[in-house]
Structures are given as structure tokens and as C-alpha cells.
């Protein structure tokens, strides 16, 4: 942290406390409605957005190694949430959400939005705009550290970032740095 003033230190401390509590609440809500792990919930959200990707690519998109992604996929299949199908090339396997998996992904995003929406309801429109501006800058910085818009936004409802002609700040960071989806 470059600014070590008491005000900046207090803000950073408040951000840490809020981030931890928000993360715990959001993950508990998301995994509770899906009945699977955090990674499984993220995989379902990703599969609805990108049906037919391979297990390895799915793992990369949610921050898992190939062996961990294969185990997570086995769990999703055992729960009837996703299925493997033949891929476009002879040896490849494509992963698709089942109807039950798509419904679970919707519940994950609704639960996540419910938790987060409830936290900002006391903010005025001006405070929400200030928070949005600050979060966009924080997410841009986090992209530099994480390096993947997919991992950073693995539980995001990407449609919500693109409302009213806005660009997703993480997707924009990826585009600005030579890749990404905007």
C-alpha cells in the first residue's frame, strides 16, 4: 500500500473486513442452493455461459488443475448437473449442463445477487455510483494479479455488468492487456 495515512489504512482495513464477510455470505448462499462445492457452483455458471467446453478448459476457467477439474466434473455428473458428450474432434469430450444443472446455475446467480443486492440497498444512488467506480478500479488492479477474467469472474452474472451500455471492468482490463472478451 503506497498511502500509509491513517485514513487509507482504515479504508483498507474496512475493505478487508467487508470482503471477508461478503465472500463468506455469497459463497454460502451460492453453494447452499446448488448443493455442490464452490468450484462446482462456479463450473455450473461457466457451463451455462459456455456449454461444450472441455474439462481441462473448464478447470482453467474456474482456477482448478486438470485432475481437480476431472474430480469436480465427476461430482457434477453424479449429481445429475452436468454430462460429458463427444467433442468436435475424435478424442475430445465436451461438458454440458443438464436441465437440472442449468436450473442450479440460475439459483446460484439468484442467491448471489440476493446476498449482494441486500448489502447495497441502504446506499444512496450517489453512494452506489461511488462504490461502483471504486470497485471498477479495484477489479482492474486484481486482473493484473489474477490474469484471467474467467477466474476473477467465475461466479459473476456477466449480463449484469453489461447493462446500460456498460463494459465489464474485468473484461475491459483483459482487452486492454491484449486478450479477453470485454
Detailed description of the structure:
By secondary structure, this protein is mostly helical. It folds into two domains: 108 residues, Winged helix-like DNA-binding domain superfamily/Winged helix DNA-binding domain (Arc Repressor Mutant, subunit A, Orthogonal Bundle), CATH 1.10.10; 58 residues, no CATH class. The protein contains nine helices and two strands, in the order ααααββααααα. The chain has a two-stranded antiparallel ribbon. A hairpin with a 6-residue loop joins strand 1 and strand 2. Helix 1 runs antiparallel to helix 5, helix 2 crosses helix 3 and helix 2 packs across helix 4. The model has no long low-confidence stretch (mean pLDDT 92).
Identify the notable features of this structure and list them briefly.
2 domains; 182 residues; mainly alpha; Arc Repressor Mutant, subunit A; single chain
Summarize the structure.
The chain is 67% helix and 5% strand. It contains 9 helices and 2 strands, in the order H-H-H-H-E-E-H-H-H-H-H.
Amino acid at each position: 500500500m503506497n498511502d500509509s495515512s491513517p485514513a487509507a489504512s482504515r479504508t483498507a482495513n474496512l475493505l478487508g473486513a467487508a470482503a471477508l464477510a461478503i465472500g463468506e455470505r455469497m459463497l454460502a448462499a451460492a453453494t447452499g442452493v446448488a448443493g455442490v462445492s464452490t468450484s462446482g457452483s462456479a463450473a455450473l455458471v461457466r457451463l451455462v455461459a459456455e456449454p461444450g467446453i472441455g474439462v481441462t478448459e473448464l478447470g482453467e476457467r474456474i482456477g482448478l488443475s486438470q485432475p481437480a477439474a476431472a474430480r469436480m466434473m465427476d461430482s457434477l455428473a453424479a449429481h445429475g448437473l452436468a454430462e460429458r458428450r463427444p467433442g468436435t474432434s475424435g478424442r475430445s469430450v465436451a461438458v454440458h449442463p443438464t436441465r437440472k444443472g442449468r436450473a442450479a446455475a440460475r439459483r446460484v446467480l439468484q442467491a448471489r445477487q440476493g446476498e449482494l443486492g441486500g448489502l447495497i440497498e441502504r446506499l444512496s444512488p450517489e453512494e452506489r455510483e461511488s462504490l461502483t467506480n471504486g470497485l471498477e478500479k479495484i477489479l482492474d488492479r486484481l486482473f493484473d494479479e489474477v490474469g484471467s477474467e474467467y477466474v476473477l469472474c467465475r461466479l459473476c452474472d456477466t449480463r449484469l455488468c453489461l447493462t446500460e451500455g456498460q463494459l465489464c471492468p474485468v473484461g475491459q482490463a483483459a482487452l486492454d492487456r491484449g486478450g479477453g472478451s470485454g
